[in-house]
From TrEMBL:
Residue numbers spanned by region Disordered: 1-23
Keyword Mitochondrion found: no
Name of the protein described by the UniProt record: Folate-biopterin transporter 3
UniProt keyword annotation of Membrane present: yes
Bilayer-crossing regions: 50-72, 124-143, 149-170, 191-213, 219-237, 275-296, 308-327, 339-361, 405-424, 444-464
Organism: Hibiscus trionum (Flower of an hour)
Signal peptide start-end: none
Gene3D superfamilies in the record: MFS general substrate transporter like domains
Protein's membrane topology: Multi-pass membrane protein
Pfam families linked: BT1
Subcellular locations according to the entry: Membrane
Length: 503
């Protein structure tokens, strides 16, 4: 009977598929039109199931604020530090690490959005606050002439904090909808990933032209638009109001959530992978600012223009996207250790491509600078993404029940501490080797040190579990942990009613 029922249920699907195939064969124009309209139908379906304001929020926060905005701001910040503030490469390396400090305290933003509603709302006020923070910081950077380095750094940190707070808030919305609509969890992640990738491609592709036409400060003025759109998300997002909230218990909830996270971190199956993630990132020395100054200022270098620098980063974004596709289609079912071994090894080897460029070996081989740099950027970003994807999957499996969102933010903050350590140690190496705005004789030494350090994490792979990537890692008792004082309970987050309100 079950087989007959399954056959009965699948028969209409087969008939529909056959009909679609028949239409495409006999009417190619109509078939092409249906394929072109498929993304629109997909977005319409998500808007009907999850409410249009949520879909709009994902596109704005991931696509415009993070993808497009960060793509523009990365290039403009590099030129701002080099041309406006006149800082050395090693100093710029340290300062750009400080700019990303708000991402280290992501668990704090997560706890605030989960535990402390403002005027009865848990998400909307944080979007509005994040947007205004970004608008004010970009206004200061774009309008103030001869801004002191300290105030400029403070403004850049504030802008980064605005993006981080909006990121945490939209992550909470996605997590909640994944719980209430588990069948659409994959579609939501696809929406997030596509929005971010497309936005980053556009941002990096246009960044060089914008910097050339308006200067770094002009680009900061343009970045007011993405920040304003985040305010729009907070205004339009449909969210039920929390009534009679016990603000007197906020401290208790903070303490309970903190104790739960500390208990989880002490688990051997959790702290060992977290330690590996930190070491893997911290030992991948970050010397991008030294390479950037060499690209643009070195007498014997390629002397790339702003447009070319932006196009190089955009090709890197394509390489990163290709790495995601490789992992999704061919590598996701392989053990974590195997993928990380090869990814770490190839990452170290690919770093030597910079050595070929700096020593001008590529010119001796007849390879133009731009062609070689594009290959270098795409390959490096691809291997970096292949290494990052299993770490993300592993991180999601280390989160205990009840504090999933906040603990995932904690793991991400550990990763950002690793990136900060990488940036600061890279700046120290550039300083010790006397790599300055005009002196690049020892840059090749920094490249060799970085490539060798990238191989060291291979010796720490024993910290990564050998388990099947499709199985749980945490002990079963942690997966049955009760929620911490309603911190992340769906009925308290009040997001599921968005769908009901739209019916």
């Amino acid at each position: 009977m079950m087989e007959e029922q399954e056959e009965t249920e699948t028969k209409p699907l087969r008939q529909d598929a056959a009909a679609d195939s028949h239409v495409r064969r006999n009417n190619p124009k109509k078939g092409f039109l249906e394929m072109a309209l498929r993304p629109i139908k997909w977005l319409k379906m998500l808007s009907e199931e999850l409410h249009w304001s949520f879909v709009l929020g994902v596109v704005i926060v991931y696509g415009i604020s993070q993808g497009f905005g960060v793509g523009l701001s990365r290039v403009s910040t590099q030129y701002y530090m080099k041309d406006e503030q006149k800082v050395q490469p090693s100093q710029a390396q340290v300062l750009i690490g400080i700019i990303h400090f708000p991402w280290i305290v992501k668990p704090l933003w997560g706890l605030l959005t989960d535990v402390v509603p403002i005027l009865g709302y848990r998400r909307r006020p944080y979007f509005i606050f994040a947007g205004f923070l970004g608008v004010i910081s970009m206004l200061v950077l774009s309008l103030h002439k001869n801004l002191h380095l300290g105030f400029a750094l403070l403004s850049l940190v504030a802008g980064s904090a605005g993006i981080a707070i909006a990121d945490v808030a939209i992550d909470a919305c996605v997590t909640q909808h994944s719980i209430s609509h588990p069948s659409l969890a994959g579609d939501m992640q696809s929406l997030c990933g596509l929005s971010s990738s497309i936005g980053a491609l556009l941002g990096f592709a246009l960044s060089g032209f914008f910097v050339h036409l308006a200067g770094a400060k002009g680009v900061f003025g343009f970045l007011i638009i993405p920040a304003s759109l985040v305010v729009l998300v907070g205004t339009l997002l449909r969210e039920s109001r929390v009534r009679n909230f016990a603000y007197g218990r906020v401290k208790e909830k903070f303490l309970d959530a903190s104790k739960a996270m500390w208990t989880t971190l002490k688990c051997r199956d959790v702290w060992r992978p977290c330690l590996y993630m930190y070491l893997s990132l911290a030992l991948s020395l970050h010397i991008h600012e030294g390479m950037f100054y060499w690209y643009t200022d070195a007498k014997d270098g390629p002397s790339f223009s702003q447009e070319i620098v932006g196009s190089i980063f955009s090709v890197g974004a394509v390489g990163s996207l290709f790495g995601v596709l490789l992992y999704q289609n061919f590598l996701k079912n392989h053990p974590f250790r195997d993928i990380l071994f090869w990814a770490q090894l190839l990452s170290g080897i690919s770093g030597l491509l910079d050595l070929v460029l700096v020593l001008r070996i590529n010119l001796k081989l007849g390879m133009p600078d731009y062609f070689f740099v594009v290959i270098d950027e795409a390959v490096s970003r691809m291997f970096g993404r292949i290494k990052w994807m299993p770490l993300l999957v592993l991180s999601s499996k280390l989160c205990p029940s009840g504090i999933e969102g906040t603990f995932f933010a904690l793991i991400m903050s550990i990763d950002h501490i690793g990136l900060l350590s990488s940036a600061w140690s890279g700046g120290l190496v550039l300083h010790m080797l006397n790599v300055t705005r005009t002196q690049f004789d020892n840059l090749w030494v920094a490249i060799i040190i970085r490539s060798l350090l990238r191989l060291i994490p291979i010796g720490f792979l024993f910290l990564i579990p050998r388990s099947d990537p499709n199985l749980s890692i945490l002990p079963s008792e942690m997966l049955r942990t009760k929620r911490v004082n309603d911190v992340l309970e769906p009925e308290n987050i009040e997001m599921t009613t968005l769908v009901l309100a739209s019916d």
